[in-house]
Amino acid sequence: MLVLRWIGIGVLVFLVAVAALFLRRALVARSGGIIRLSVRVSTMLDGRGWSPGFARFAETELRWYRMFSLSFGPKRVLTRRGLAVERRRLPEGQERLIMPADWVILRCVSHQAPVEIAMANSTVTGFLSWLESAPPGAVSHLVLRD
User: Fold this and answer.
1) How far apart are CA 65 and CA 39, in angstroms?
2) CB-based contacts of 100: which residues, under 8 Å, 6+ apart?
3) Contact residues for 141 (Cβ-Cβ < 8 A; gap 6+)
4) Residue 75 contacts residue 56 (beta carbons within 8 Å)
C-alpha cells in the first residue's frame, strides 16, 4: 500500500510539471506570436552550449524563454536599443547536429554582452525588421557582415 501511495504521488507530481510547462507556453503565446529561438548560454566548448526555447517580441524587447523550464518569466531579454547584429553565419561542426538545416546563427552585440542566437532563416527577416524599426527620432544600429 505504501508503494502505491508513493507511485501515485510521483505520477501526480509529473502531471503537474507537464501541465505547468504547457500553461507557461500558452500564457506567453496568448500575448502575441512566438518564434523558435535558441540562445548560446555557454561558450566553453566550440559548438556547444545552445539552449532551445522560444521568444516573443514585446515593443522594444525580445523576451526569450527556455523550452524546458518551469519559470514563467523570460530567461533573457534583449532590448532593441543598443542591440546590433555583428555577424551572420551557418551552423558549423557540432552545431549542425543539433540545429535544423535551415537555421542561421546571428552574433549580436549589446550594452550588456555579446550574445549568439539561432533561428530559422525565414525568421531572420522578421527579426532584422523588428531591430531596424524604431519610434521616430530613435537611432537603429544594424551592422551586418557576412
Assistant:
1) 10
2) 120
3) 82, 83, 84
4) no
62, three cell numbers: 525580445
C-alpha cell at 14: 509529473
Q: Which amino acid is at 97?
A: L
124 pLDDT higher than 50: yes
The CA distance from 15 to 91, in Å, is 36
Reduce the DSSP state of residue 97 to 3 states and report it: helix
pTM tops 0.85, yes or no: no
Residue 39: which residues within 8 A CB-CB, separation 6 or more?
50, 51, 53, 64, 75, 76, 115, 116, 117, 118
pLDDT, position 146: 46
Measure the CA–CA gap between 141 and 146, rounded to whole angstroms. 16
**pLDDT digits over 72-86, tens only?**
788 888 888 878 899
| Among candidate residues 80, 46, 78, the one with its CA nearest the CA of residue 65 | 78
